Amino acid sequence: MEKTEKATPRKKQEARKKGQVAKSVDLTNSLVLIAAFSILLFLGGQIAKRLHDLFQYGLSDLLLWNVTEESIPLLFINLLKESAMIASPIVLVSWLAALAANLAQVGFLVSTESMKLDLKKLDPIAGAKRIFSVRSFVELIKSILKVVVIGGITAQLLWQQRGVFLQLPEMELLSIVSFLSSLMLKLGITISAVYLVIGAADFFYQRFDHAKKLRMSKQDIKDEYKKTEGDPLIKHKIKEKQRQVARSRMMQEVPNAQVLITNPTHFAVAIAYEAGKMNVPVVVAKGADYLALKMREIAKEHRVVIMENKPLARTLYANVEVGQEIPEELFKAVAEILAYVYRVKGTLSK
Question: How do beta strands 267-272 and 259-262 pair?
Fold first, then answer.
């Protein structure tokens, strides 16, 4: 079945829970590279000085150390601390850049679905389909593009410095280190910027490809709706059953009414009132057409007074629900009817 419809929010949420999100690894890597080379650009001098001091310390003071079984662990710890201090700014900034890149692309997400054993992944036919899929072809083109573009830019920058490379044998060691460090930073920043453009383009492709994978057929949407909202046919049957129960209860209340006000045939409203027990009259049942006729039959059977009052019957049916008290604006009209009923039944003194 052709999948032509966009994924529903529920389908997207389920995919997200499984860890299936649109994310570009290239975009994350490019931001990490930019962050790393940027910190080198700003703190390169301090890092170079610390490295110089570390080498000087290793080639001078450490040579005078008395190497024993107790001093070796201490020496290792000192070198480890100094190395960590040198590398920590680059590592910290790179980690923050990777975290920010992932949060910006997919938000906060923790999923263990991808860690579960899935034997379907061992299917050789499915594996072959993945290898020769459109996605694999796009990944191949993207890899070739990265190699060609980044390699071409690197070659161009190195070619521009060919004259300096020819002079390296005549330069002092510090000058050589300074030149190579500067060239490395320039190459790193330039390549990272180009890589960022490739990563951004890849991110939009990943979003497109992810949305395409999540596409649904019209039948899928119908099935999802049935799962979420329930089968419309079953819901209709439940509502019909509820209406039947409500009608049955209303019919049981008709004999307890003092009067049944009718239209005469289209509407019927049963009103109950017991002096001393109720503050105001209450609508205990109402119905239209067939239900109204049924109410008339029950009222006749139980000798409930039936009165025809078209305007009042319509107003009560339209504005008062079963179980609600009569509104204040209808007190007078209902009271007059109840007074008449009591007179008919001989409960009011003449």
Answer: antiparallel
In a domain, 239, yes or no: no
Q: Over the stretch 288-320, which tens digit does the pLDDT of each residue have?
A: 888 888 888 888 888 888 888 888 888 888 888
Q: Which domain holds residue 266?
A: 253-345
What's the distance, CA 332 to chain centroid?
57
Q: Is 190 exposed, middle or buried (0-12, 13-18, 19+ CB in 10 A)?
A: middle
Do the domain assignments include residue 1?
A: no
Indicate if 141 and 283 belong to the same structural domain. Answer: no
> pLDDT tens digits for 107-126?
877 766 666 666 666 666 66
- Provide the residue type at 98 as one letter: A
Tokens at residue 340, please?
Answer: 């008449």
Structure token digits, residue 40:
């080198």
The vertex-230 CA angle with 225 and 232, nearest 5°, equals 90
Q: Do 201 and 325 fall within a single domain? A: no
Q: How many structural domains comprise the chain?
A: 2
Q: Say whether pLDDT at 278 is over 70.
A: yes
Q: For 202-228, what is each residue's pLDDT tens digit? A: 889 888 888 888 888 888 777 777 776
pLDDT (0 to 100) of residue 348: 44
- Taking each continuous run of H as one helix and of E as one strand, the counts in the chain are 12, 4
Which of 25, 24, 46, 36 is CA-nearest to residue 96?
36
pLDDT-derived band at 48 (thresholds 50, 70, 90) equals: confident
Q: Are residues 177 and 262 in the same domain?
A: no
Instruction: Give the CA distances from residue 34 to residues 90, 93, 95, 218, in Å, rounded to whole numbers and listed in that order.
Output: 11, 10, 12, 45
Return the structure tokens found at 115.
């860690």
Report the C-alpha gap between 213 and 201 in whole angstroms.
19
Q: Are residues 39 and 133 in the same domain?
A: yes
For residues 32 and 159, membership in a common domain is answered with yes
Segment 92-110, tens digit of pLDDT: 998 999 999 888 888 877 7
Q: Are strands 259-262 and 305-308 parallel, antiparallel or unpaired?
A: parallel
Segment holding 42, helix H or strand E: helix 25-59
Q: Which phi and psi angles does 113 have, rounded to 5°? A: -60, -40
Q: What is the CATH number of the domain that holds 301?
A: 3.40.1690.10
